[in-house]
Design a protein that fits this description.
- Helices cover 75% and strands 0% of the residues.
- It contains 26 helices and no strands.
- Helix 3 runs antiparallel to helix 5 and helix 20 runs parallel beside helix 23.
- The longest helix has 17 residues.
Amino acid sequence: MCGFIKEWIENWKEDKKRNSEIENPGNMSDLLKIVAMKDPKYVKEFIEYNEEILKECHINGDRAVDLIKTVGDPEYIKECLGNVEKMKALDINGDRAVDLIKTVGDPEYIKECLGNVEKMKALDINGDRAVDLIKTVGDPEYIKECLGNVEKMKALDINGDRAVDLIKTVGDPEYIKEYLENVEKMQALDIYGGKVTELLTVEELEPKYIEEWLENIERMRALKIQDFIAADLIKKVEQKIPGYIKKCLENVEKMQALNIQDLIAVDLIKKVEQKVPGYIKKCLENVEKMQALNIQKSNTINLIRMVEKKNQGT
């Protein structure tokens, strides 16, 4: 069967035209996959020397990847990936190239690929694709090594949410702390605002550490944790440290430094009221505090109505 198919393919190549039996050009790919199971060398040579026919039969993109994988030879896959021009001609890049790299099944080979930034760029492997490959290696120490090379991370477009994903993947609270303490490193990888919040609120970090970290206003501002983002973080910390919102609201200077005022402050006050009935009334009685938090007249009236409504219900 294999010999017959090979003979047919060779005759087809000589004629330079499609046989009526394979009007669908995708059938050529199916025939080659059958041959690959018995004679992978033939298919390798076909891919190597018949670029024009591959194009004519639409053997590119996913079909080309499928055919290369059918050969079943990790070394051959490496050889293919090493020829960037050939990969481009076969429209193998991005997710397709990642698929082939992972198919090799060798963490050291993945590291080798990621070490060649120019090759990764040529194959359109960056961002989420690069993160996927780094995580596929399955080695926390390697992830740390990658994150330690800021220039490489930038070149592979790994920053922000992607960098946070890798930091969390390490699974080491001490390593997360190491990052949280290094403002310059965080800034270099574009880890600001809500991205910092994501690191601070991982389950592995103990509440006491989070509370202490949040005492450094200068660091919070440097990492753009202010106004709505700061309030959101305070609410999340409340889940770990009951009473934390109330504690923050008592520190008016801290609220001002984090630009938590007016409607944002009102939202926090309402949150406290849910656990500490009468807190809104207490705040309203402290005119100086309300002014310091820049709570506008309309929002003050809204709070007063809430208190009145509650009193009517009792």
